Amino acid sequence: MGGVLLVTGGSRGIGAAICRGAAEAGYAVAINYNSSPDAAEALAKEIVAKGGKAIALKADVTQEPDVVRMFEEVDQKLGRLTALVNNAGGSRFPAAPTGNQLVDSPMIQIDGIIALNLTSAAYCSREAVKRMSTGLGGTGGAIVNVSSDCARRGGPPYRKDGVKNLVMYGAAKAGMDALTLGLSTEVADQGIRVNAVRPATIVTEAHAADGGAGHYERMARLIPMGRPGQPSEVAEAVLFLLSDKASFITAALVDVTGGR
Ligand code: NAP
Question: For the chain, which has fewer Cβ within 10 Å, the N-terminal or C-terminal residue?
């Protein structure tokens, strides 16, 4: 494959699996992190030790100046961007002091979840289009957004004890789906494809932290294939959508859900 790829939230979980797979496929990988420098640096070292090219870049993707600086660092250290994965996200930002059902949610939490799961993808996609667009001197590229099956269900029905703000999470991811569709149309004649994957339950720290005892067993009962997914299974779908094998695919929302 080759090219220059930035993965937001590449330090852990699904993002780290995408970085590993992309490096094996020949991309130079920029691994974005916010609060996990050790994990990001260790992943960059692991990739370089295997003969790949990777750098770790700190940026809070909810902060526009951080995003602008991060893309400039990619320009300087790896060259012109050809691929972007908007992966940073989650349902616990900022952590709720009292509970996370909408009725309990202060503005900072509602805005925070939208900023992390939607606004950040808009900031990053804008910077990516500036570099990829054939109308702006680029050679084209591909963007993949990591959405969620919550986008089409509003949020999971399995908990009512208020650990997460899943209503706003589902709303933000639905916004990400609309961003995918709208931007794909805007840049289709500029050599840029824009797609999304929508995972259901994937075994990562985010779930381990939130779910409590028996979480994966409970989730597995909701998944026709009878098990949660692995980060590498999401990464494979993302890498396909980034690749030339998907050269006529844009505006696709690909469910990676075990049938849920
Ligand atoms: P995770 O294990 O919690 O990892 C989250 C990643 O996002 C970390 O690398 C984290 O980096 C980064 N991040 C968080 N806030 C950030 C910020 N402000 N700026 C930059 N990076 C930030 O999550 P995951 O389960 O792999 O989820 C990855 C994506 O898949 C998310 O968009 C999530 O909504 C989506 N998803 C996950 C599942 C699932 O079941 N796991 C299902 C559907 C969709 P630091 O640690 O460095 O802060």
Answer: N
